[in-house]
């Protein structure tokens, strides 16, 4: 392991030299890329240096132990050796986990789409509840939430809502939310007190910038139309809403929630880049023979990653069998515990495959 860690530290130090090179500093894109790589390696290199220092301290102490005849000095050296040897297993475990190849998208911001599934009005209300849950969760982490596009449901909540989450390593956390979410509860509209099962789908896409996805303007059909719903005097009088169709893939995105046509167009391009980037990732994984199911399935009740059961005050994440309470997850800040458990299970699985 020493040889591997020394090479890793040398590569990190080479990165530091490049970041101080005037030619690199002048190239903003290259500098940004190298700076992100440097930052992503910082914790691993710190642990590697700590591990190698412990090995060196043990070796030095053993050499001194053979040379000294002083009983007190021998005792001190033996304690030093034992202390460093005790630290090594934990350092090794940390390093092994950090050496697991990360998802290159983990550093990215995300675009999240919530879509009401099976369950009529109650599904729309549940989609709205999920959005509020994510708003609270993101706020607790200091992340920014920007609604890109939404289609409100008549009974409350949303038929669909798309929003961008910006902050530190957003995708590394939010990616665990992709899939079908199922709720079991008595709807507000239910007079007989019967429990209804409804679903909403959540898709989490890493945001793609122009470096990731190049879009030919000739491949786009851009339509403008009058916005509908709340928005003041401009609604239904100016063509501020924008719909963009990517002709080669027939991918359609639209936005009417921003103040101007220019802003709605930029939002549409953000969503389009994210969707095309996801398609490209899917294509690459298919070529490699990876068996990858779609993020959101068909929205059927049987295709679920998590169930929110209000009468039993229980939330179950079916991927790892983790249970929490309905009130803490959907109405408070309990989502963090589920995501931390999912991340821990993911690390353990990757570590088992790597060993």
Automatic annotation (TrEMBL):
The modification N5-methylglutamine is found at residue 233. Residues 288-312 are annotated as: Disordered. InterPro entries: PCRF, Pep_chain_release_fac_I, Pep_chain_release_fac_I_sf, Prokaryotic/Mito_RF, RF-1. GO terms for cellular component: cytoplasm. One of its GO terms (molecular function) is translation release factor activity, codon specific. Gene3D superfamilies: 3.30.160.20, 3.30.70.1660, 6.10.140.1950. SMART domains: PCRF. It comes from the Bacteria. It is found in: Cytoplasm. Its main location: cytoplasm. Residues 63-177 form the Peptide chain release factor domain. Keywords: Cytoplasm, Methylation, Protein biosynthesis. Methylated by PrmC. Methylation increases the termination efficiency of RF1. Peptide chain release factor 1 directs the termination of translation in response to the peptide chain termination codons UAG and UAA. HAMAP family: Rel_fac_1 (MF_00093). Belongs to the prokaryotic/mitochondrial release factor family. This is Peptide chain release factor 1. The gene is prfA.
